[in-house]
Every structure is written in structure tokens, then in C-alpha cells.
Amino acid sequence: MNSMDYDVVVVGSGVVGASIARLLSSYELKAAVIEKFPDACFGVSKANSGIIHGAFHHATTTLKARLELKGNMMYDQLHKELGFPFKRTGIIVAAFSSEEMKTVRLLYKQGVANGAPGIEICGSERLLNLEPGLNPDIAGGLYAPFAGVVEPYRFVFSLMESAQLNGLDFIRDFEVVRSSYDGKLHQVFSSDGRAVAASFVINAAGLYADKISEIFNGEKFKIHPRKGEEFLLDRNSPARPNNVIFPVPAKESKGMLVIPTVEGTTMIGPTSEKIDDKEDSSTTYSNMERIFLQASRMVSGISRRDVITSFSGLRPVLENEDFLIEKSQMAPAFIQVAGIQSPGLTAAPAIAEYVLEILSKDCGLKLEKKKSFIPEISRTEKIYGISPEKLDELIEKNPAYGNIVCRCEQISEAEIVDAIRKGHTTIDGIKFYTRSGMGRCQGGFCTYKILKIISRETGIPIDHITRRGNGSFITGERISGELK
Amino acid sequence: MIKKTYDAIIIGGGAAGLSAAWNVAKAGFSTAIIERENCLGGILNQCIHTGFGLHRFGKELSGPEYAEMDIDLVAANKVDSFINTTVFEIRSNGILKSVFASSAEGVTEFETRAVILSMGCRERNRGNLGIPGTRPSGIMTAGLAQRLLNIEGYLPGRKAVIIGSGDIGLIMARRLTWSGAIVMGVIEILPYPSGLARNIAQCLDDFEIPLYLGHTVSAINGKERVESVDVSPFKDGVPSLSGTFKIDCDTVLISAGLIPENELSVKAGVKLSNATGGPYVDSSMMTNVPGIFACGNVLHVHDLVDYVSEESENCGSAVVSYLSSDECSCTQGNISAGSNIKYIVPSKYRTGIPQKFYMRSLMPFENAMLTVKCADKILFERKLKYVRPPEMQSFTLTPEMTDGLNENSPEINVSLTEV
User: Fold this and answer.
1) pLDDT at residue A146 above 80?
2) Which residues are bridge partners to A191 per DSSP?
């Protein structure tokens, strides 16, 4: 086996690929993740609601429901080991009529059947006690106390960091265009002519799982993108509930929510709209109106004045709406992990275990626990919200903590440099790793500072730095020289 | 933690902070400016065009030249300045304040009796405006583009569309054209321009850059970098999509207003006005928190730096009175915005002294009458020509005008009417 041969290669470094990667790194295996973008988490996992769901939305018969609850339960341990922002806020499903209360009762029964712990039906009085910001016209609803919120990109980054710490290779800018199989090894080729070889390949390619399956001669299925638009409100917005507030769900989606993000902002959305273009991340004027109308119906104090940004994400949806996780019947030594839409983020840790079980049971891969596995990763101190005394101590150890680069989210130069040294060298990579540029000025003040720090740390000229790879350059060319 | 003591601490070393600082220091009070950037002068440093100082100095200066006038006065009056230092918290301990700031040297606690807020403002961005479309690279505020071009030396892009006809956007339209980029147009949602008339003439008309009044960008298109924008007429509060046309561009600059940056103020307990986004201040430029003052764009957005300096000099003088404890003990009355007026600053008046007020109209007028009334009594009236929301109006309330008001300082109302 030469140095580029792996036992397992995972295609894609979203939450699914990263969860599988970290679990693989805990076994005596040679494994790699290949990613077409310059950083992890630049696809589906970047733009979603960040909810750890409550295991009551999906029918007990589905694979989704099983993995959702199991995944939810795994978050505490992962949080302890990896330290990503995570909080069990609870979920409230708010009903405004007796008709909607009927659906709430069905959800409750489904939740109980799924084994969701602590779930209850509440009358309006109890709900308003739990959540004083709710519209007082509420009829009642469902309360799932063990559901929560997570910062999805920090979660994915920490999984990848942990996997790499334990020996997994992360190969960036590797877009798979071709593959071959010689009975033992897959040869996987990238658009820029690189190749890796692997005994087993796992398809965790999100929106493009259908294309990857085709490249490996696997099953023919189609991933339908379903778009969700969301709005992010300033952390000073008066509309910040304690729980995630859901409406009573519609047929295809869980509806538009009011989410107290773990970062301290409020998010409203998402819409749910079938589209054809997998690259369509656009937002529209009419959906903005709808989102505000529905969110304001549930929670008071939501104002357009507090919007700091909006975005849209795409759910990778299969025809039957369920997850597809199985050893391919058509492609050899190939595992499909496709259609991982909501509650994919919640289920991801359980999906990883499920995939490893397939590798071991169905594929005959020998799995031996790595004795040297280190579950924890190093934590970088953050200066947001710390006391003057603590900040002073940090600056004494590293003066770069004293230079506040992102004023809105209070991110120091030390944190930016740490992100760059961990391999995040695009503006979006640093933004999602540190939160710089995610606050109310949306990078208006800090972008040029971050460009200069990236350039200083990596030697990349400022006009070559991108937002998220390819041609997404931040500035045009340099037109005036350094003053001598 | 380092500890320092001053009579007054000024947060922000831009136009407002500089003027306020030397006016406090020249009365003999120990004064320090805390500035987060690596030099004093604030946004003036990136405004390399001329047009500053006509009112205050009677000549046309560039931004850096204008700043230098105040920086020299700051030095001459022995104001200490701390650059590369960011204030992150203000605590009140009764009459004393503690201002905590961080720099590479560590955290410094500045103990002081008076704090002047002069942090300026930030630009409204795409999210604030809710502009739909995709999320490519190449969308930035006009101020960031100005920084990249004028200080860092990089062309923001080759073919630009500017959203909003605010002054920074207009200045950038000309600057980009001079640098070899093409400006395809300026899109303004209102039926009239937001920037100064002289900037429309000198930055757009002179270069034949189209100005689309009453239009909005209904979508930004592009995958990696901006490729085009959809422009639609704006009718009855919504984009009229049937009249949409496309403009090709690789860059979108946003120049659609400024927001006073008051997160630090709010944390310190300062109450803000919804109309200005800045603190309510009384006739001494003092906020609701005793000993905390505000001036410049953090208080309300000005259209000329000359007015920022004037207001800040007054703020400096008021702080001197506060520190000298020779404040007039007479009561202050409310002065409020009446018909067609968006806001008036300060929101309190005091009899017996001349006091300047700044305000903005809610709509444009060819000929308007400014009326200052107390109940039914007209204190003063003035005819104004060409009143437009982007151009700040001001007037001085003299002791003669308020002479004869009763001792309880009843509310004064200011209004504009068409004549």
C-alpha cells in the first residue's frame, strides 16, 4: 500500500462526513476526507437552523426518527470532549387553534412512541410561564425540554480538528470528477489531476450525493434541493425567546421558527421551497414578507430594523423524504449516506455509528479501537464577554488578545491567527470559525484587517484571498505601491 | 491591570472626539482620547477628497488635512492619546466612572469623572436593507471600499453599481472612475438623492454616471463574484418587478445610510432615541447617565464634519462646566420635534444661554417655515429654502427668545410647514 492509499475515504466534510471522519479516527485505520471546497462545512451544513431536534416530528417507522433521538442523546458527550457551542434550550410547538392542538396531540403521541424523554403537552398558561414572549393568544402546545441549539460550523470544525488530531487526512480543494475500481481499490481523481486510493468510499456529498454515486457507478437517485431562507436579528433584539419556537408543522417541513441561537442572536425562518438549481442560494423579497409575518405571529418584538443579515440554505432531499444509509448494491465497497436533510444535524453522530456498523458488518472491515485516541481537542480562549481581569491575564500570555479585530462580536487578533494556523484561510472560513464579521456590521469594519492578517500569516497576497475559494476574490488588483 | 486617572476620557479619536478633547483640555483638565485604530483622525483619514472645513475654516481641505488641524490642537493642549486601544466596558461607581480598554499592553482601567462618547457610526449593510439575491463576493459598504482603495491601495472591483446615493457612495463613484473602474449607476430608492447636491453634480453629473431615482436593487446575482444586479422601480413601498432591468457589474457598493454605534453606550445604561439611533442628551450634551456625554455621529448622523466639530466643541465646553461644578442650576425644558421634523438634538433647552439645535426634516420642501413655539406663543420663525432630509438644519435659541417663559421651562415645539 503506498502512502496515498487509504482504508476509507469519505467524500464531503459537512456534518455527516465530519462525524464519520471523527469516528473513523478512533479506530486503527488509515482514513481521509476529501472536500471540493477550501474548508470544511461550506455546503449544506453551513446554512441551516442549528437545531438539535426533539424526536417528535418524524414517524417511528422511519430511519430518521431512530437516528434523530440517538444522535440527540450523543451531543452531551461530544460537547464535553470538543467544546463547541451547544445548549439544551428546549423546543416549544405553538398552537393557536383547537385544530392545531389536534396536531400537537399527534406529535406528542409520535414523540412518546419514538422514546422522546420529558415531552409534554402544555396549556396556554404553562406555555406562557415557560416562554413569556409568546403571543398571549396561544391555545397551547408541545414542550420538548431536551431539544436544543448548536453552532453547526463550530461543531463540524471541531469534529474535523479532532479527526485530524487522531491521524485522519483532510484533503481540501479536491473535487471528485472520476473514479475507477480494480477489485481491491478505488482510484479517485480530482478536477486538478490529483488522485487518492481507498478500499472503501463513503458518499457524504450532501447536495451532490447523486453525482458522486453516479461517478462510482452506484445507485441512480436524484437529490432535490429544497431551499430555506432565514433572517438573523441583532443580539440586542427584544425578540429572543428562551426556547426554540416552532409553529404546528406543515406537510413538508417543520415550518418557520424563531430560534434563540447559541451565539446570542435570534434567527427566524426557514422557508421550504423546492427548486432545481443546487447552487441557488438566493433570497427573495416575497419570502422575507412571509417569514416576518409568521414569526411575528408567534413571538412579539420581531422587527425588520434588527435584521443584520439573511441567507438561504439547501436541504438535500430524496424522493421518499427519508435518509438513505446503506452499502451500495451496485457500486462495490461503496456506502451511500444520502438525503440527509433535517434532522440530519441532530442525527449526524448516530449516522456515523450506523455507517461504521455497515463498514464492519456488511463490508467486513476489521475495526479495532485506537488505544492512542485522544477525544479532546485544544481550546482557544475567546475574549467575548470575559472579565477585564481575565482579559488582562490572556494579554499577558499573548499580546494579540489585546487587539480587538472584530468589534461587534469581540474577536481578538489571537483568535483570528489561531483560525488561520488551523487551516482556515478564506474570509468565510475565518468567519465561521471565529464569528468575526458575523455581527451587526457584517464585516464592514474588520474585513480589511482580516485580509492583512491572512496575508501576513500565510504570504497570500491580499488580492488573491477569497471569500470561499474559486473566484470569490474580495478585492481587485493592487493599484498603488507601499509608501517608502 | 494598569490603572490611570483623568478628569475626562474621550472614547474615539475621530472628528468629534478630537474637538471635544482639546476643548476640555484647554481649560486645564487632564484629558485622554482612547482610539482603537492605529492613528487619530477616524474616518477622515480615508476621505482623501476635498470639501471639508468650508464652514469652520473658510477653506476647502481634504479629510486628513482637516483632521490634522484638530490633532495639532490636541497635542498643543496636552491631551494624552492611547491608540490601538479598544474600550469594551464603562462602569459607573456613583460620580466616578471606570472605562476599561484593551491593547497589546494589557487591560487599562481609566478612572474618570466625565466620559465623552464619540465612537461615530457604522454603515447600513445589505442585511439591514434586506436586498434579496445570491451571496457572491464583491458586495461591500462604500466605506470599506474607500478604505481598501485609499489606504490599502486595492481596487475593490472593475465594474460597480452603487446602492444608495449617500455621500460616501457618491464620492466613491468618482474615486472609482478616477482609478480606472467603471461605475454603471447609482440606485436610489427615494425619489430624491440622499447625498449633498454638490456631490451629485461633482461626482455623478461630471462623469455622466446614471442616477436611478425611485429604483431599488431587487436582486444581486452571481456565484463566486457579483455578476449583475436586477434593478426595479420602487412603487407604493414595494419593488415593481414588471419594470425590472439588469445591470452587469462585478462589485456592489452600499451607501444607504449610517447607524450610530451605541452598543457600548447601551451597556453603560445610556438610553437611545429611536429617531436618531443615538443617546438622548440634555442642553449640556449629557446623556441620562450623569457624567456620560455624547457628540458627533454617535449622537446623530451629521452631513458635514464642520457641524460635528462645532457640536463637539460645545460638548467639550459643557464638560468643562460639569467638571468645574459651575453648572447653571436652572431647570431644563423639553424641546420636541413637531410636524415634518424627524428629530431635534439636544432634546432639552435651558433659558438664559444661547444654544444651538440640529434637526432633520421628514420630507423635502421648496419653501418652508421653521416655527419654534411654546404652547401658542411663537418664539421665533424663519423661512427656509430647499429643505431636504439629507441636509441637516440648525438654529440657535437665544436668551431673548426664551425670555418671558415661566420658570418651569415648559415644552418647546419645533415644526416645518410648507409656505
Assistant:
1) yes
2) none
Are B180 and A441 a contacting pair at CB < 8 A? no
Confirm or reject contact between A236 and chain B (CB < 8 A): yes
- Exposed/middle/buried for A88, CB within 10 Å: 0-12, 13-18, 19+? middle
How confident is the model over B369-403, as pLDDT tens digits? 999 999 889 999 999 999 988 889 999 999 999 88
Q: In DSSP terms, which residues pair with B385 in a beta bridge?
A: B367
Architecture (CATH level 2) of domain A388-464? Orthogonal Bundle (1.10)
Which pairing describes strands A5-11 and A31-34: parallel, antiparallel, or unpaired?
A: parallel
From B277, which residue of chain A is nearest by alpha-carbon distance?
A305
Tell me the per-residue pLDDT of B147-162, one tens digit each, with 9 for 90 and over: 999 999 999 999 999 9
C-beta of residue B1 within 8 angstroms of C-beta of residue A388 = yes
Domain B335-418, CATH: 2.60.40
* Smallest Cα distance from B33 to chain A, Å: 17
Q: Is the ipTM of this complex over 0.90?
A: yes
Residue B377 CB neighbour total at 10 angstroms:
11
Handedness of CA B314, B315, B318, B323 (dihedral sign): negative
Three-state SS at B203: helix
- For the segment A204-232, what is each residue's pLDDT rounded down to a tens digit? 999 999 999 999 999 999 999 999 999 99
Q: Do A475 and B148 touch (CB under 8 A)?
A: yes
Chain mean pLDDT for chain B: 95
- Asked whether the predicted pLDDT for residue B326 surpasses 80, the reply is no
Q: How confident is the model at residue B408 (pLDDT cuts 50, 70, 90)?
A: confident
Residue of B1, B126, B219 with shortest CB distance to A389: B1
CB contact under 8 A, B157 and A288: no
CATH architecture of B2-122+259-327: 3-Layer(bba) Sandwich (3.50)
Is it true that domain A1-87+149-223+319-379 has CATH number 3.50.50.60?
A: yes
**Is residue B139 within 8 Å of A444, Cβ to Cβ?**
no
Whole-number Å distance between alpha carbons of A471 and B136: 10
- Per-position b or e across A199-238, b if 16+ CB within 10 A of its CB: bbbbbbbbbbbbebbebbebbebebbbbbbbbbbbbbebe
Position B373 scores a pLDDT of 94
Instruction: Give the pLDDT confidence of B193-226 residue by residue, as tens digits.
Output: 988 888 999 999 999 999 999 999 999 999 999 9
Whether the Cβ atoms of residue B146 and residue B181 lie closer than 8 Å to each other: no
- How far, in Å, CA of B399 to CA of A131, rounded? 54
- On whether any CB of chain B is under 8 Å from the CB of A474, the answer is yes
How far is A123 from A417, CA to CA, in rounded Å? 50
Query: Is the Cβ pair A236, B84 closer than 8 Å?
Result: no
CATH number for the segment(s) A88-148+224-317? 3.30.9.10
Nearest CA in chain A to B218: A285
* C-alpha span between B156 and B252 (Å, rounded): 9
Q: Which residues of B touch A477 (CB under 8 A)?
A: 154-155
Residues 303-342 of B with CB under 8 A from A: none
Residue spans in chain A of domains classed CATH 3.50.50.60: 1-87+149-223+319-379
Percentage of the residues of chain B whose pLDDT score is greater than 70: 99
Reported as a single tens digit per residue, the pLDDT across A63-73 is 999 999 999 99
Q: Helices A63-82 & A344-361, crossing angle to 10 degrees?
A: 100
Residue B148, classed as helix, strand or coil, is helix
> Under CATH, which architecture does the B125-256 domain have?
3-Layer(bba) Sandwich (3.50)
pLDDT for res B233: 97
